[in-house]
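I'll show one example:
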Amino acid sequence: MSLDASFAVALGSLQLVLELTVAPGEVVALLGPNGAGKSTALRCIAGLLPIDTGSIAVDGQTLDDPAGDVFVPAERRQVGVVFQDYVLFANLDALENVAFGLRATGTAKAEARTAAREWLERVGLGAYAKAKPSELSGGQAQRVALARALATNPRVLLLDEPLAALDAGTRAELRRDLRRHLATFEGMRVLVTHDPIDAFALADRVVVLEAGVVVQAGTLLDVTAHPRSKYVADLVGVNLVRGTVADHVLTTEAGGVIVTAGDSADGPAFAAIRPQAIAIHRQIPDGSPRNVWTATVADIDHLGDRVRVRLSGVVPLVAEITPAALAALEIRPGDAVWAVAKATEVTTYPA
């Protein structure tokens, strides 16, 4: 039994193609930049947007299959949704908001209200049953939305950026609460987020979406250890260069050359270099460093006690140095410099 989704859908300029399987008790995070198609994927699984091709099934029951003329409407799917802005009814109190989902499935009013009151107690909001959404904090509204989604006893729980609307202080606390509540749900869970911290804290696996395409999938540790796109590399703060390795030398399409350590296999590959491993020089350095590139300072960002220097050139890079080193170098955007990295600081893996 599982959630099995293999479909394509076009929405405006977005062409989303998704392969996703989620097992009971598993939390899978759809991670990616804005506009990648994460929320569109959730809308398709929830039945709020029909797919163009492929199929979506839960526990073997087909919910959407255009070729087979099957489309189960949202209200008949065993799918609960927590929307990014929670979508609570402003004219209903917390109790009636939670009861709404049950009432929509045909549960009698008294029974729905009893179940809703139990769920509010479970999420720690029993004392707020009569509160309207405008009287709730962001964290409280999120818990009401979660209780409403879970009260219908869904097989699949979809969470669309559930922590995005919260301030930084509240997010840490609510992240812990959400992890605890998710642990009590035995169905399949899909979390949409652009925050790797949320993915790391809440998900068992991540699926990285970029421009409607899955570019990487696995545990967050696996994905970040071997990033396969600039987006993932930026998340973990490494330089990522793609090219072809021959005799321990990676050559990019632009003609850039990176000497790698002796364990790199020939063929298409990625090279990852930590910004802290890149040194910047005003003059060509002495000695015989394996990797020396000419570059131009494109931008300089001060981040606390570190400085990130973006370098343009045949091998675009980001170096991270100290403020003292920046002062000694006396570099500014537009200056020509030399960038240096040891071959042992270059990590390669097949593309």
The two ends are 33 Å apart (CA to CA). The chain is about 25% helix and 35% strand. The chain has a mean pLDDT of 91. The first strand starts at residue 3 and ends at 11.
